Amino acid sequence: MASNSWQQSLKTALSGKGSERLDKHPQYNPDAARLFAPVISPQMDQQIDWTDDNDPLLRQFIPAKDELIDATSLSHDPVGDVAATQATGVIHKYHGRVLLIASGSCAVNCRYCFRRHFAYGQQYAPRHNWQAAINYLAGDNSIHEVILSGGDPLTLQDDTLQGLTTQLEDIHHIKTLRFHSRIPVVMPERIDQSWQQWTRKLSLNKVMVLHINHAGELSPAAGHAIAQLRQAGFTLLNQSVLLKGVNDSAQALAELSHALFRHRIMPYYLHQFDRVSNAGHFEVPQNQAHDIYQQLRQLLPGYLLPKWVQEIPGELAKTPLSG
Ligand SMILES: *Cc1c(COP(=O)(O)O)cnc(C)c1O
Ligand code: SF4
């Protein structure tokens, strides 16, 4: 059945066979690949301009020699997630909102990701059938929003996700379900009929925070998946990471905001890079980032300007870097 095709795509990506070109590319570095497995989805393989060595999509996914630089000023847990983990798979750092590590895997491995050092194998919730997490959520009525993150929660099967959301619907103080996912864009075939059927019926408010860094990631297939999400009633937001060689210009960021808006996705956050080991070459220094953001502010209407923020361990919300 066609409805199985995303599982096939995911399997292909996770086995390292999402691209026939990646490991033949001159910038591919096998030592970097050993540090963090290269995972790329068939859709992103298609979307990369392979004739351009500086392609902003390629740079996000190719294991590069710069990853072998492990500056001591960089951290393995830059956002303090390990300290904040309450019950298995539950991260409760912010008032009213709880983040559930729903899955340990993703359809792409982004080279700049802080997840590259996180021991997700032990920590993600489904290994414990959600029960520890559900008990935690049920026992604290200040929690009104549950965020499924990871990893990428959309790597889970629909019946697994539905099993969880059915339990969440029974907890009265929980009003909103939020997904943090890159999959509608990097593996749009995931948003199939089966997904559509159960998400459409959810009684919770539904938010999908996508993760798109560059307008070039928005393929026609991604556009179709996004339209499906809109139809199912999701509020659509986007978060990006400011990344050197990917989107480190006001021009690129403005184009991204306009492209998002064409799909009725509102720009939400622009994250200052979390200073993670082996990815320092993606960092845009804060003074330079400040200049880019000031230029961006002049190019965009206020409603298309993402909030430039950083996650600082111990803070009670993401910290705005510019007012
Ligand atoms: C970012 C984040 C959230 C959500 O924060 P919002 O500002 O509501 O988007 C919740 N929990 C954790 C651990 C986070 O990192
Ligand atoms: S968690 Fe997000 S940023 Fe990190 S590898 Fe997965 S998709 Fe990429």
TrEMBL record:
Domain Radical SAM core: 92-315
Superkingdom of the source species: Bacteria
Reaction equation(s) it catalyzes: L-lysine = D-beta-lysine
InterPro entries in the record: Aldolase_TIM, EpmB, Lys_aminomutase/Glu_NH3_mut, rSAM, rSAM_sf
Record's compositionally biased regions (Polar residues): 1-12
Cofactor: [4Fe-4S] cluster; pyridoxal 5'-phosphate
Region of interest (Disordered), residue spans: 1-27
Keywords: 4Fe-4S, Iron, Iron-sulfur, Isomerase, Metal-binding, Pyridoxal phosphate, S-adenosyl-L-methionine
Family: Belongs to the radical SAM superfamily. KamA family.
Protein name: L-lysine 2,3-aminomutase
Native source species: Marinicella sediminis
